[in-house]
Amino acid sequence: MNKLLVILLACLCASSFTPGSEAISNLELITSNNELEMKPALIHTVYFWTKASTTETQMEDFERGLIKLGTCPQIETYYWGPPAPTEARGVVDNSYNYAINVHFASVEKEIEYQTEPIHLAFIKAHQDIWEKVIVYDNIVK
Length: 141
Prior knowledge:
The chain is α+β, with helices and mostly antiparallel strands. The protein has helices at 3-14, 22-37, 56-69, 107-114, 117-126; strands at residues 42-50, 77-81, 98-104, 130-139. Helices cover 43% and strands 22% of the residues.
């Protein structure tokens, strides 16, 4: 949830209003407008396949590294995790071990991120356990 929405919700909760009041419809309008304005310009998605020889300790260290990676100052929003246990279908690839979804405010921020010391330290610390890495970058319309 973006910070502005949290602030708006806190302000509305602190004031007295009844469900269905004008405050609710104004909040929906404000939220809708802010979501349009707050969209990231670029989404950077990375899939990691780890080597079969990767130990549990290495995986735990990798997860700590994923958490630290999310602190890069260029990042607007960051998510990481293993594949979801969704229904097996021909179009679903859940063969990877972890994925990250990184939202950047601009293409320039993603370019800065590529040389960010936290990002470079993450690569150096964990690249030996990767069998395969695939990156998908897309512009948000």
